[in-house]
C-alpha cells in the first residue's frame, strides 16, 4: 500500500512540476499604406525647387518618434516604385505629414506611396 501511495505521489508531483504556463502576447499592429495621385498643378515653386506638402494625420507622435516612415514614387505606368530620396526627389517627414521636393516640375501625375511601419521602441 505504501508503494502504491508513494508511486501515485511521485507521478502527481512530476505531472504538476512539468506544467508551465506560457503567456503569448500576439501584438500585431499592421503597417499602414497611404497612396496619393498628385497632379502637376499641386507643386509650388519656391527658391528654385518645387515643393509639395501632403497632409497625413496618421503620422502622429508615436509614428514619428518610434516607428518608421517610408516614401515611394511610382513610374508613370505604376509598374515600379522607387524609394525616396531618388533622383531629383527628396522628402522630409513631420508630425501630421510629409514635404516632398524636386528640382523640376513634373508634366504628368505622380503617384506617391507612404508606408507607416509599426515598430516597438526597445531603448
Features:
123 residues, alpha+beta, four-stranded antiparallel β-sheet, 2 helices, 18% helix
Report on this structure.
The protein is of the alpha+beta class and 123 residues long. It has a domain at 32-117. Helices cover 18% and strands 38% of the residues. The protein has two helices and eight strands, in the order H-E-E-E-H-E-E-E-E-E. The strands form two sheets. The chain has a four-stranded antiparallel beta sheet. Strands 2-3-7-6 form a four-stranded antiparallel beta sheet, with no helix packed on it. The relative contact order is 0.25. The mean pLDDT is 84.
Beta content comes to 35-45%
Whole-number mean pLDDT: 84
Number-wise, the strands total 8
Broad shape: rod-shaped
Low-confidence stretches: none
> The biggest beta sheet, please?
4 strands, antiparallel
Order of secondary-structure elements: HEEEHEEEEE
Could you tell me the radius of gyration in angstroms?
27 Å
Q: Can you list the strand order of the major beta sheet?
A: 1-8-4-5
Protein structure class: alpha+beta
Q: How far is the N terminus from the C terminus? A: 60 Å
Amino acid at each position: 500500500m505504501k508503494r502504491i501511495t508513494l508511486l501515485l505521489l511521485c507521478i502527481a508531483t512530476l505531472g504538476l512540476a512539468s506544467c508551465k504556463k506560457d503567456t503569448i502576447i500576439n501584438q500585431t499592429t499592421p503597417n499602414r499604406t497611404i497612396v496619393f495621385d498628385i497632379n502637376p498643378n499641386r507643386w509650388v515653386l519656391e527658391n528654385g525647387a518645387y515643393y509639395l506638402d501632403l497632409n497625413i494625420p496618421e503620422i502622429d507622435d508615436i509614428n514619428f518618434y518610434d516607428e518608421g516612415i517610408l516614401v515611394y514614387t511610382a513610374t508613370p505606368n505604376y509598374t515600379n516604385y522607387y524609394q525616396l530620396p531618388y533622383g531629383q526627389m527628396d522628402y522630409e517627414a513631420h508630425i501630421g505629414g510629409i514635404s516632398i521636393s524636386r528640382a523640376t516640375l513634373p508634366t504628368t501625375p505622380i503617384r506617391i506611396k507612404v508606408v507607416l511601419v509599426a515598430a516597438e521602441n526597445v531603448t
